[in-house]
Amino acid sequence: MHCVSCARNIESRVKKHPGVLTVNVDFVSSKMFVEAEDSVSDGDLKKTVEELGYKILEEENQGQIEEKKLVEQAKLRAIWALALSVPLMATMVLMYLDMMFPGQLWVEAILAFIVVYVLGWKAHVSAFRAVRRLYANMDVLISLGATAAFVFGIAAFFIEVPVFFEIAAFIMAFQLLGRYLEEKAKGKTSEALRELLELGAKTARILVNEREKEVPMEELKVGDIMVVRPGEKIPTDGKVIEGQSSVDESMATGESLPVEKTTGDEVIGSTVNQEGALRVEAIKVGKDTFFAQVVKLVEEAQRSRIPIQEFADKVTSYFVPAVLFIALLTVVVWLILGNWFVAIVAAITVLIIACPCALGLATPTALTVGIGKGAKQGILIRRGEAIELMGKTKIIVLDKTGTLTKGKPAVTDVIVFDQTEKGELLRLSASVEKNSEHPLAQAIVKKAQEQEIEISDAKNFKAVFGKGVTAEIEGRKILAGRRILMEENNIDISSAKYALSKLEGEGKTAMLVSDDKKVLGIIAVADTLKEETKQAIGELHKMNYKLMMLTGDNRKTAEAVAKQVGIDDVLAEVLPDEKVDVIKRLQEGGRVKVAMTGDGINDAPALTQADVGIAIGSGSDIAIEAGEITLVRGELGALVESIKLSRATFKTIRQNLFWAFFYNVVAIPVAAFGILATMLGPIIAAGAMAFSSLSVVSNSLRLRKIKLQ
């Protein structure tokens, strides 16, 4: 495909094929995506496309090889075209100095013919096919302009007119140079996706009868035990069953620090094991893996179209016919004014200077680079439209559990009374709680284990529903639970009331610990804030977003967390279906754009209702399909990064479109009014046209270097 018009023409023809439901042809990646009924075969679609003069490559790697081959061929054609055009410029100088050598016109004609029709044959074939199919593309303009100049060069053999051979040659030479540079730059826009594909492991080392065997990834099955040595990639998503190590998950999450892994932890395929040897049970293979889902999501997002692009595409569809009309009108007007030289040169310049490709490339190149950049940083953008909507969003609604907080209770305070030591209080409470499955009990046991406190065996363990637990530790009765448990066992809690009220006021769950006589202390447990939450909320305030916490948790806890992070607007004790109503109310019938950030599971209905749903999670268990944007790292700082990326990408799209429109709106009238009506005019126009497309692609490539953190 030589321009966006080619892609749209293929779409139009394939859409008309019986049984085809949807079709999308992506000019940037040169890929076609079709959804069709079972009655439509690949052969039918291939035949339809090949009838238009295009070739279909079904294998991904075959396509990449062909792409490299085409870019190399384009480079050689451009070099030869420029090398043969330079002597033509020299002959033009000789002509002006009245120093022509014998047979000069023939030399010019032969050189120009080689450049225009031998090296530039693809443009003419593409133009012929387009005209035959009753549509116009960029190549129609190039072919017409170069051929018109060449024909007037031939006329110089018979009548006394200026020689246009050098104009014809330089038009095609600059077009070939521009196409080569554009193809090379376009290839770079998809580099992020190619890099993702290259990250995948090619083989896996599995255990068969306790002996290691290396197998291709295609043969790996769920349940296989993989052996992963230090420095090797983990072949697929799995669970560690033996060993401990640190794993570099930067390719998946964007987090530069290694993550500690031990028995029972899940690992993501294609991440790198760093220190110890691991044995990992495969739990997902093939298209079900986290990595495969990411690649699929990025491909789908990069070919998605956003509202602003629809407008540009509509303009592009009328662009070439409009340019042809303006060129014809230019000839007529200048002939009426009696200046045939300006009529010819100005019309050729109009044909050559116009650049619909810049309009067609403005949005998809920026989207491709931006979405690819996000994927490498652990920001998965499922729909390109989210990038545009994020820039219009005024309100960000945040869930509490799992979004602002870690979603796992942890011990926050250990308060002791009556000369009891903190370590002893933790030992007694952990010993009582170790048989309990309650999340709060597990948090206390975990805290004791972290401090390497020896946990004793408990006897006569008893869980009192909704109140706490009791047990005997080394012949001593220990109680751990709410104040009602203490009151029922006649334990005086007067010394603990102040601390108890203070902790509860902070939204923490306070657990009293006593023996059968007196209160020994209080252990407070809470769902603690994630590391980046406070800083991220501060940055969101600086970005002038209105923030709201929307949670099903109790009001006291919600308000305590909101106060900690600096969120003023809090709605607590809200059920999942009620969250949808809150989002609707905030949207004010579509007048206000609202983003919702949640864990992607409990918040799925609200994420769907929001203009931009942002799912936040951690590791391979994320519900990638839950939102328009998925933050793999699981920290709120990634939300700030996704906003920065969205803003930068949409800003680039606007810059590209402004430049593309501005260039054509200025350049075409300049050409038509004869301002460039000199022998160098069409040559300057050809260079400007090539620069226009290249500048749009180059501007999009700048997104690869933006800093998000």
Automatic annotation (TrEMBL):
Key words of the record: ATP-binding, Cell membrane, Membrane, Metal-binding, Nucleotide-binding, Translocase, Transmembrane, Transmembrane helix
Superkingdom, taxonomy of origin: Bacteria
Species: Candidatus Nealsonbacteria bacterium CG_4_8_14_3_um_filter_40_11
PROSITE patterns tied to this protein: ATPASE_E1_E2, HMA_2
Family: Belongs to the cation transport ATPase (P-type) (TC 3.A.3) family. Type IB subfamily.
Keyword Ubl conjugation belongs to the record: no
Main location as per UniProt: membrane
Membrane topology: Multi-pass membrane protein
GO cellular component: endomembrane system; plasma membrane
InterPro entries reported in the protein's UniProt record: ATPase_P-typ_cyto_dom_N, ATPase_P-typ_P_site, ATPase_P-typ_TM_dom_sf, ATPase_P-typ_transduc_dom_A_sf, ATPase_P-type_domA, HAD-like_sf, HAD_sf, HMA_dom
Subcellular location per the Swiss-Prot or TrEMBL entry: Cell membrane; Endomembrane system
Coiled coil location: none
Cross-referenced CDD domains: HMA (cd00371), P-type_ATPase_Cu-like (cd02094)
Keyword Cell membrane among record annotations: yes
Pfam families documented for this protein: E1-E2_ATPase (PF00122), HMA (PF00403), Hydrolase (PF00702)
GO terms under biological process: copper ion homeostasis
Protein name, per record: Heavy metal translocating P-type ATPase
Cross-referenced NCBIfam families: ATPase-IB1_Cu, ATPase-IB2_Cd, ATPase-IB_hvy, ATPase_P-type
Regions crossing the membrane: 78-97, 103-122, 134-157, 163-181, 315-337, 343-367, 657-677, 683-701
Limits of the HMA domain: 1-57
Gene Ontology MF terms: ATP binding; ATP hydrolysis activity; copper ion binding; P-type divalent copper transporter activity
Classification of source organism: Bacteria, Candidatus Nealsoniibacteriota
